[in-house]
């Protein structure tokens, strides 16, 4: 589903990573670990089409990203990418249900249909009845589960998660990881998570390490 070939990104004279190759099948969950500042989040942003590489390419379901075309990148993200951020990025002026439905709104889905889908996803992540609430009233775990529901509401081919348990206590993180695992299984998306947590990484199907600019299988 996801094919990454020869990806490279630098800031100034410092190479964050180079020659990165990665294949992720539909329904597979890959974790990428590494030290702070190793470029994990930047790699995720390049795969998402939020940032641009210096070299290399990314293909999703056989379609290669055109990093030169802003409109094409935006359309790619809207239609095919679900992103779970560490800081949640829920919109405070929308209620929980509207936050989850936002990707469908951007795709032009009629309001009744998208809100029905959002309610179903909230139930699936254990937040049935939370739709009318505002994000400010949610706990960290509730906000992250809302973010996961939003990330998969439009059935993306690619699910990306950037430190999804970084701000959570151990018990809450376990619930969020269960939710994320269920979302990957049910959506059959190719999933990539970057994390500094060995506990979170252990939940993935495969663990890779980004170190000294190169992506390799993680060793125990």
Features:
Rossmann fold, 220 residues, 7 helices, alpha/beta
Number of distinct helices: 7
The helix-strand sequence is EEEHEEHEHHHEHEHEE
**Largest pleated sheet:** 6 strands, mixed
Instruction: Report strand order across the widest sheet.
Output: 6-7-8-3-9-10
Q: Would you count the extended β strands for me?
A: 10
Q: CATH architecture, please?
A: 3-Layer(aba) Sandwich
**Radius of gyration of CA atoms, rounded to a whole number:** 17 Å
Question: Which spans of ≥5 residues are poorly predicted at pLDDT below 50?
Answer: none
Q: For the record, what is the CATH homologous superfamily label? A: P-loop containing nucleotide triphosphate hydrolases
Q: Which range best describes the helical content: under 10%, 10-25%, 25-40%, 40-55%, 55-70% or over 70%?
A: 25-40%
The percentage of residues in β strands lies in: 25-35%
CATH topology: Rossmann fold
Structural class designation = alpha/beta
CATH class descriptor name: Alpha Beta
Mean pLDDT over all positions = 91
Total domain modules? 1
| Spatial shape | globular
Give the CA-CA distance, first to last residue: 27 Å
